[in-house]
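User: what does the whole thing look like in 3D?
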Amino acid sequence: MIDAVLGFSIRQRWLVILFALGVGAVGAWNFTRLPIDAVPDITNVQVQINTRAPGYSPLETEQRITFPVETAMAGLPKLDYTRSSSRYGLSQVTVVFLDGTDIYFARQLVNERIQQVKDQLPPGVEVAMGPVSTGLGEIFMYTVEARQGARAPGGSEYTPSELRTIQDWIIKPQLRTVPGIIEVNTIGGYERQFHVLPDPGRLMAYNLGFRDVMTALAANNANVGAGYIERNGEQYLVRTPGQVANITEIQDIVIGSRAGIPVRIRDVADVREGKDLRTGAATLDGKETVLGTAMLLIGENSRAVANRVAAKLGEIARSLPDGVIARTVYDRTDLVDATIRTVQKNLIEGALLVIAVLFLILGNIRAAIVTACVIPLAMLFTITGMVEARVSANLMSLGAIDFGIIVDGAVIIVENCLRLLAEEQRRAGRGLSLNERLRTILDGSREVIKPSLFGTMIIAVVYLPVLTLTGVEGKMFTPMALTVLMALLGAAIFSVTFVPAAVAIVMTGKVSGKENLFMRGAKRAYVPLLDGAIRHRSLVVSGAVVIVLASGMAAMRMGGEFIPSLDEGDIAIAAIRIPGTSLTQSLDLQMALENRIRKIPEVKDFFTRTGTAEIATDAMPPSMSDGYVMLKPREEWPNPSKPKSELVEEIEKAANEIPGSAYEISQPIQLRVNELISGVRSDVGIKIFGDDLDILQGAAKQVQSAITSVPGATDVKVEQVAGLPILTVRLDRRALSRYGLSTADVQNVVEIAIGGKSVGKLFEGDRRFDIVVRLPENLRGRLESIRAISIPLPPAENPAVKRSKVALAASSALQMRYVPLSSVATVEVTPGPNQISRENGKRRIVVTANVRERDLGSFVADAQRAVAEKVKLPPGYWIGWGGQFEQLVSATKRLTIVVPVALTLVLLLLFMSFGSLADALLVFSGVPLALTGGVLALLLRGIPLSISAGIGFIALSGVAVLNGIVIIAFIERLRREGLPVFDAVHQGASTRLRPVLMTALVASLGFVPMAIATGAGAEVQRPLATVVIGGIISSTILTLLVLPALYVLFRKDPEPAPASDLSAAAPSSGVAG
Amino acid sequence: MRTLPIVIAVAAALAITAIVYCTMGSTKPTAPVARINHQSERAANGHVEQDEHGADRILISDVKLAAAGAVLAEAGKATLSDTLSFNGVLRANQEAVVQVTPRFPGIVRSISKRIGDTVAKNDQLASIESNQSLTVYDLKAPISGTVIDRQISLGEYASEQKPSFVVADLSTIWVDLSIYRQDLNRVRTSDEVLIDPDDGGADIKGRISYVAPVGSSDTQTAIARIVLTNSDGRLRPGLFVTARLVLAKRDVPVAVRVGAIQTLENKTVVFVREGGDKIEARPVELGESDAKFVEIRAGLSAGEPYVAENSFVVKAEMGKGEAQHD
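Assistant: Here's the predicted 3D structure for the full assembly of 1399 residues, as structure tokens:
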């Protein structure tokens, strides 16, 4: 069949070229649709359900909201697990679906269940699903600031509330319309509100309560439509507007009347513009600011969208009030551009190197160009495939593409055609006719098409294990393997169609049979070496075995790193403070930190989110801050060549000068992705499930002490669930009954007085602001004042004390029908739960541990034994084991099965091709030989073993086998032609030097730019490239020397071979040379 | 069997390959972030130590404290003066209020004073024609003061059962404060009180002259009374006022600023500066307090330096080892 294809391609060569161009054009068009990002998205398929419940403590949140919502999610199709956290005022349930679930399908399911459960939730809470975005979603951040000396319309400086209003009502609505943006999240400043602050004393004087104020406000702020009337043929709409429009109108609302004199709001309360009780704030360079974050819709092209946002923001800037600016502080485009530049540079340089090598070795520019043409064609083919398979272009997915490996198949074909053409020409002594040429090319292609396709197939097969990875590793590396597979497929298709066709078209002139200077030199050096290797074959083979064993040992000792982390160029500092730290305190500490870090000359800006933003995509308590340190471009650094790790150290040191916070330093995307995947981030996590928080905490302490004694355990920590100071107003039911009060009466007053209660909105055009009733700040801030909150008593049953018209005449009991809160309740501060975490519908507490200097598997076994022995749990409580080790165990298990299977498959392919197990095994011996070089290269460069490097080893195995095939296949052919082993080996090896060198050189040189690149993202590609280069060098040397030796050692001629002096006597360049 | 050695060689090679893969697989999943994190945590945990009494100590330099806005001060004696707030109502001095009732029932023939008029003693208020004698007699003011109520009109039948006028002497005025029962034991006669009539003017100083021996069953409060002079008429009976009672001043030997008090593991502590950059979380026993100072009954002696403001920073620094990001 392949022959038919080859024949067709050569006959219909122009058609084939046209077809290739067509594929290229489709690829080019798809390139414009290809989502481009810096790193692969490793977020799982999850739907967040955020429920705001203002004023609810963690316990109430859990009981009233989290539990029903979570329970409702149980049993959803394709559900992986649910987890939740209940905090002050916020319930967050995260529903995680199995990988591959369509996000919109998942959201649909979740939404259905939310609708069902809504009735069970307390009134007034808002349930909302998180935006359709991922860990990479925060692509653009900007701050809204006032320029120095800018004045608001009133003549004063812009307040945080005003800036927030500008963000909420001018910027955000416009940005949300940018295609590809799903949400614009805001944090910082204050939401503008109108506060009605009743004076308790005056309320008492008028014998009014909070409730009267609220009723009056609610009843005096509505527009009502009253249908229409017809009049003289016209239709008149009737409306009775009654909305308040400003503070004066609120003040003039009448609460009631006393002896015909109206009592207005202004008589009992102060009305002013105020600030909301915010859950989070933003700071920039030591000052409060308003921070907007544009979030990318899943599957969109982050670079294109970020560009659009930037353009839109520029447009919006014109509609902002004078002196107010929206400043970009984070733009993903920068990172994506930088990484794409790196990738692009690597690929282009790789391609150029490959072309140069081809020219150098083939000595024929036309042939080199034909071969090199496979590179763009295969690449464009791959892009089409990526778009179809929804693989985004990023560092990882493009990171394993080595043009050298891709063109390997084509190289072999072109090289052979060239050789045959030269031979034919020499034999004929003239230029070939068209038919002769075509026949020669067909022959040449046919001769090597099998090993060529075969090699490609083998490289493809070794990538298969990567496809079986799941979880985070899977998300990172599966796209990489897919891309390589598609590129290989493309290359294979083109090498059976396009390459012969192009060769047939291009190679019209005389083909020089003479090898160029480079090849002649190479051969001159190689032949004596080959002879030596064959002569001392036993020594060579045992030497090779020793090297392999030694590098195996070295590999086992190498430091490991799971997944390489991309240098995003910027730094994220998460500041973590003890639970219960107030927002104001957190901000003070954070601003001190910002001012300190800003003194570092490399730092451009430092902005921070503290607490939870408007949309709780990241539900942080006020005690935590996510800070982003934006660095200046390297050129502006005092020392542009300063390594980043040094800078990070410096920043960490500076941060530790500010006491009160623990810091975690990472990078913006990394931070966000970690938050989203969450789960347990340490090696081992012991989850204790149960009901009672105290028992859970006790059990966790037991587990902690049990684990700490296991050798290898470090950083054993119990999740902090407690420690939030809670002011409990504990009602005294007996006292209540004495006064005839109900609990709700008191609760309502406390709620309104301290938390405030919204009683409607004030409209200014589109803008709407809450009207809130609560106690003045000076009365709700102190414990003493809270105890003194006056609770109105119900009207006296016995009107014995008649109220006289004149106060003076009445008994002094008069209308003072109030008691202070402290007489019906005790007010005490106790520590309460800070947050309540649940997983799969059950409360849980996690004990985490990391493992040092010990193998994880045995540690877990020991730890499990220790816990089983020492920890006694009451009925209804159980322990689950999780953490990274789970992932690790599953990945290791999978790889230990799949890698041997793949290698066996390779062996099987080899066996099929050679028809001899011995030959197959001989070729296969190239794999361990190649690995030695990879290990050595890593050691030399001091790069730890990682999955990335592992992928390199996988690629290497393929290339090594390919080299072996080329030589062994030729030797076998020569032997079939009747040559004795020695001659066959000698001749075969030296004849095939050119293709072997060529495939090896192109494959390793193709990766050189990646291995030495320093741009953004280079560190992710470096290990892979290093391994491949090192491995290919070693495998080539070893293939050229050890393989022949091995062959001679193990393959004897059927009849006794002539003396070994034959090879020494005839160092001719062989028949073919 | 000549393939046997090959098989062995390849098996060895396979084994090595497998080892490489497995090593690769079993590498530790520690992202660099996590590692940094652990380091800093260990550092944080490392500097909290406990002494034999179980008191926590931490190493923290003055520079670092200042960076976080923490302020040091020395414990010492202080004068505590706390205030209590009450609501009250202005009333006319009931001892200077006279209800003027006609001696004989009759028809009101003329009225000479209206509400608000000031009257001298024996000024005529109205003249009434007695029903019994049909003679007209004068209703006179028994005291000098202000007419604050009038219940009769011209031609009306004025009954001897009902007061026709109320005359009050407003030069002195009562302020009746409602004292909740839990505050009653802190209120004594002659305590100083600052009264705010809420008219924008200055507070008026007064002293409690009377605390009611009986309470009101209705509101569960008792009355404390202040008598104020009202020569300028600023105080008007019937209006509400708020009053702040200055509790008796008390000198205490050891006191710290209110901002110094923190709770650590359910114990009340003050962070005490010791030598060599050390700070100890010293459990203390609190006494009385006012808005600025808290008396320390035990645990701290005068002259010891302590963290007076922003002491939360020290607490946060001590606890940060346990804080974690999730």
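In plain terms: Confidence is low (pLDDT under 50) at residues 1-10, 20-47 of chain B. Chain B touches chain A through 89 residues (CB under 8 Å).
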